[in-house]
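Q: Please design a sequence for this.
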């Protein structure tokens, strides 16, 4: 005798509500999860994750669901369901970024989030706390980066350590895509990219990253503190913000010029 399906909890999040809809439509058709997975061209376990709200189909998957079940629900609500899977603190960051006029970001040991390429994000996710959510993480990062192409676009000042770029070269495929992504963004009028020479062994930026968000309209400057997992948090204390602004300016004074940084990125890319 087959085991009864696991209970769903559609009221706990929109993603779970969305998933429960998939199960309802599937059962109305009399299909098993395996049969639906064959139609969606995915594993049976992936259908289970959809139905429990542990994952949300991509645009193509949502369109197939609409075609199979003769509805427009899954395409229409897919973005909302996907957004509901973002941790609350990360949703708060995305909200402030969407309302920003300028963002000043420095990352000492990696690539600034708004400049990360899909393969780089996926690699980070696979080595993180929730590797099973890599697709959703890549999708959300891409959605966040859309603010650089908005009307008007956010102005981004991004600073990274040269050593972080050099570290990428151990994975040439990822490095090529990532460096090209940075170069493409640096060609935009609203994006400035600078590198700190890896020979600069003592500067304040080695202590932590800095992410300052200035609102497009009237409002206070806020900062984002990166952390592992769900430990990232927003900072709005005026004294702390003032220290971070001063620290960012010191990091920028230690960095190479925009032109020098661009040429170095091209040189590293050509060496791959």
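A: Design:
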């Amino acid at each position: 005798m087959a085991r009864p399906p696991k209970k769903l909890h559609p009221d706990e999040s929109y993603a779970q509500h969305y998933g429960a809809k998939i199960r309802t439509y599937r059962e109305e058709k009399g299909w098993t999860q395996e049969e639906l997975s064959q139609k969606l061209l995915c594993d049976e376990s992936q259908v289970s994750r959809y139905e429990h709200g542990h994952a949300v189909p991509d645009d193509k998957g949502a369109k197939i669901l609409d075609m199979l079940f003769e509805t427009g629900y899954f395409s229409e609500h897919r973005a909302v369901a996907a957004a509901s899977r973002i941790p609350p603190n990360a949703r708060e960051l995305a909200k402030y970024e969407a309302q920003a006029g300028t963002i000043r970001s420095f990352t000492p040991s990696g690539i600034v989030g708004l400049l990360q390429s899909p393969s780089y994000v996926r690699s980070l996710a696979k080595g993180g706390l929730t590797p099973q959510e890599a697709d959703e993480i890549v999708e959300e990062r891409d959605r966040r980066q859309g603010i650089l192409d908005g009307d008007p676009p956010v102005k981004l000042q991004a600073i990274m350590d040269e050593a972080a770029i050099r570290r990428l070269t151990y994975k040439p495929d990822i490095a090529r895509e990532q460096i090209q992504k940075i170069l493409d963004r640096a060609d935009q009028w609203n994006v400035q990219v600078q590198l700190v020479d890896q020979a600069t062994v003592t500067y304040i930026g080695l202590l932590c990253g800095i992410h300052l968000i200035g609102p497009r309209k009237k409002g206070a400057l806020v900062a984002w503190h990166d952390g592992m997992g769900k430990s990232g948090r927003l900072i709005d204390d005026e004294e702390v913000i003032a220290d971070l602004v001063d620290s960012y300016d010191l990091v920028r004074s230690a960095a190479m010029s925009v032109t020098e940084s661009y040429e170095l990125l091209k040189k590293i890319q050509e060496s791959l």
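Q: Thanks. Anything notable?
A: The radius of gyration is 21 Å. The chain is about 50% helix and 10% strand.
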